[in-house]
Amino acid sequence: MIKDNQKYFNRLHILIDAVIIAISYMLAWYLKFESPFSDMDSSVGVLNMQTYFELLYFIVPGYLILYYYFNLYTPKRATVHKYAIINIFQANTVGIIILMAGWYAIKQVDFSRSMMGMFYIINIIFTTISRTLIREVLQFFRKKGYNIKYILLVGYSRAAEEYINRINSNPQWGYVVRGILDDAVPRGTVYKGVKVVGTIGNLRYILPENKLDEIAITLSLNDYSRLEYIVDLCEKSGVHTKFIPDYNSLFPSRPYTEDLMGLAVVNIRYVPLTNTLNWFTKRVVDIVLSLVGAVVFSPIMLIAAISIKCSSRGPVIFKQERIGLHNKPFLMYKFRTMEVQRPDAEKKGWTMKDDPRVTKVGKLLRKTSMDELPQLFNILKGDMSIVGPRPERPQFVEQFKEEIPRYMVKHQVRPGLTGWAQINGYRGDTSIKRRIEYDIFYIENWTLSFDIKIMFLTIFKGFINKNAY
Known about the structure:
Blueprint: H1 6-33, H2 49-54, H3 56-69, H4 81-105, H5 113-143, E1 149-154, H6 158-169, E2 175-181, E3 190-191, E4 194-198, H7 203-206, E5 214-217, H8 227-237, E6 240-243, E7 256-260, E8 263-267, H9 276-296, H10 298-311, E9 317-323, E10 329-335, H11 343-346, H12 360-368, H13 375-381, E11 385-387, H14 394-403, E12 416-418, H15 420-423, H16 432-444, H17 448-461
Helix pairs in contact: 1-3, 1-5, 3-4, 4-5, 9-13, 10-12
């Protein structure tokens, strides 16, 4: 079985990568200089083949080191394949940058940059195909019952149940839970086919048998006083041990730690926008795009303002208090789409389908999201951002923070004109719980490219709102 010869399989994996790197390089050289598509009309300034191929002595081991650095040789049974592809792309990008920088440093002008560009693309494609094929083959064998890892859970808890659920749903991971040890739950209790087989004290007799590949500590919160003892016992046996906390609902999708002079501090919520450079970059983008948007959409806003004024009495701009960054209230601007109401009537609730308060012009503005355009000026002021969770009224914030877990996390960033939840259909009269899940995913996984993706998708699917009444 593969797991019994894991070190040989890992070496084979490295050998396959080395061969692919060399083949990709030689193919790039052939396409550049020898193929029918070669654009070389003269040999002036062209290095000979030996010079090009001698560089392989540095490229192959250098790229393997980069692959190791970018975690391409760590076990990934249960990880999403796209992350491996991202790591391949990142490793190759760093590799080509180092090569280019090296040529610049030694003033080598005759080395073909276009050939290296081809090598960069070919190597990414071939390595991705290789990794995908290996992954598919391994998953096939695991589904058939080969290359299996046997796991024992220590502690019956919500974490244990969630772990079993995921393993049962993904047989391609190749994990089998042999049983659970717990002192409080009776022996013989079964959850999704996994039985409680004894007490935690039985570890002393089970571990020496050496029939397990992994121990997963899934203690309930009440039993955490025994954690150190159990970890010590497992590590003395030499069995690989992992810890699955019974408070995953409190943790971000990608938790991170700080090292305070040897003391590990786990941050409950990772918010990339607390980084000064990230915050500054996003703010500059907001200012530039809101200015451009105000100019580009000025004709539409002028037409909307005239239509509102001519169709009903009242102000063109509707100002409503919303809760923003750090729970601070601000006045959000919108084009008025309803008949003027008393303040107490306006606070009663959301607009419903066929709401008689909505004007004819307002219905069109709401359906096309054009009523949100004045928020470009909120963005300029710094109350809002182009992309972020949508802000809510104070009375609903007070309600939802008690009803929806982690609802207040959204106030750790500026609210947005558009957002990840909105382009996925969660706007208007839709599930608040699902909306918050999308908002938290955005907050924890923010990148500038993610913002650009959301803006791009907003153009195609964000303006027409089928849930707007």
